[in-house]
Amino acid sequence: MGDPIRVLCVDDDPATLEIAASFLDRNGLDVVTETSARDALDRLDEAIDCIVSDYEMPAIDGLELLETVRDDHPDLPFILFTGKGNEAIASEAISAGVTDYLRKETGTDQYTVLANRIENAVEKRRAERELARTESRYRRLVEQTLVGIYIIQDDRIRYANPKLAAIFGYDPDELVGRSPLTVVAESDRDRVADSLAARQTGEIDEVNYTFTGVTKSGTPVEIEAHGGSIDLDGDPAVMGVLREVNDRHRREYALRALHDATGDLMRAHTPEAVVDRAVAAAEDVLGFPVAVIRLHSPETDTLDPVAVTETAIDVLGERPKYDRDEALPWRALESGEPVIADGSLAGRATNDLPLESALYVSIDDHGTLSIGSPDDTFDDADVRLAQVLAANTAAALDRVANEAELERQNERLEEFASVVSHDLRNPLGLARGRLELAHEEHPSEHHDDIQWALSRMDSLIEDLLALARQGEVVDETTTVSLATIAEAAWMEIDDETASFVHDDLGEIEADPDRLQRLFGNLFRNAVEHGSTSPRSHDREDAVEHGSTSPRSRTHEDTVEHSSTSSRSEAGDAIEHGSMSRQASPDDGSSVTVRVERLPDGGFAVADDGPGIPDDESDRVFESGYSTGEGTGLGLAIVRTIAEAHGWQVLITKSDTGGARIEVHTRG
Fold first, then answer.
1. Which residues are recorded as modified (4-aspartylphosphate) (predicted)?
2. What is the pLDDT of residue 580?
3. CATH of the domain at 492
4. Domain membership of residue 187 as a residue range
5. What is the pTM of this model?
6. What does the DSSP assignment read for 76-118?
């Protein structure tokens, strides 16, 4: 006997129930008891193998219990064990689907008989279930494969799987019962008929050949066939597989479907999701329902099964880990070349998939993809498609690893920014406050230099915070109006002599706050570097300057400080940056700044100033590069924000000879 048998005994007489349970327990059965049918129904969610019930019970009798059980558990063994029995009750019980019917006797031998009846009923049910599972998993294996499978007996097709029927343009039911010569071109019918007869009579055990088939619509198709003699229900039959010699349509479909599956792989955010989608593609796209992905574990130096199709589990059971040099998947991983195990290797301990044949493909250095086939035919197309799937899986795993590393980098950047904000800005604010008090008590010309140094430190801290936080990878974007964001950034520019124009800019996918910061820094670069007015020369050179506007300080969570001069100049920017002050190039403006849309979906910011010298254009985006007293981080922040979006920044000359900075959203 196999696994322990758990029996639910139901009887409204506790004494009778206790005796029955004791004797059944002696016979090796695991018994649970209930004194009412209603309580027994509450236990059916447990793992019960058989119910033994009395007939005459209050509220719900044994037959009513049987009918209720059969609604949800049609094959659960149910034995009516009653002291009040007659032919009418027995007939009604049989009609209701009782498994067995047994009269209570006065002796104890009846419990041995009852135990035997229980064991027989349970073992029969288990055998039937296992047979059904076996038939189901092999039917799935046969029906989902991309090769045609057939059984022929007495010159009639007894079975045709969906693939075989599809090759010839039929439904499977249309072919069953027909002569196999229905799908054979007239020129090859005699040869195919002789081959089938020889195999069915046993003259030839196995044969491989090609013939010209004909579809339902009359189109010829070249077929490669493999088959051999089998015994079916005690009589000889022929079973085999066939496929199109030039299965171009299948390959084209598979390549298109693999392309779609690749997009699904690339959208996965964990290694587990990647490999689960990959084995699903092996089944749904390549047509191999038996598929296993193993990933290499550096800690144990083993290949561990991390994704297995349901059919592979049904057919093969739990898949083991493999130590180095223990199995064929290692050979594929180490060589980087596909390994095919044919029928001669089936069943060996070193064969990962003990079917007729198996294919092993490396997923770069991540692990291996193993697929099994019910026949011994892996052609070049199968191998190439499996390699494409493996390569796409490797790329998706690399992407997930890169995302994880970027996330760790973002966490470190945020930690750095928090330390800078708290541990540097608080003492800086204290120093400014003390400086103001000292100046009130004892004015000194040295205080101006100290104030300048503190402002310089404040600018450096602000830009370092921006560089850290703006460099975080953009996780979420939204569709925004490029013109709206650019206009909002221009409102922060504190230069009433500059003018701003833009084209019809359309929309873009971006983080709006970071995009506005990018525009703000580009505009300051254009105004402060390109302007020749005295007012603009009073400020730091744009190449050296980062944003100090109140809006950008809010985005960077900066702490307050007591620099009144910085606050007043930045605060005036909003007021003086009104879009109504757009001037034409001939109205005496110091510089005109234009935003244009690029053909690739990106944008450019150009000015009509003196431009950037050629020998400096490669350096202006470097952190810390400065030609004056600025922080040298303004344009470095621009590049950081762009790269966080996956964009690329380039410097060229505008049509007027000024600077032109292009942001390309596609490489």
1. 54
2. 35
3. 3.30.565.10
4. 145-246
5. 0.40
6. S-EEEEESS--HHHHHHHHHHT-SEEEE--SSSHHHHHHHHHH
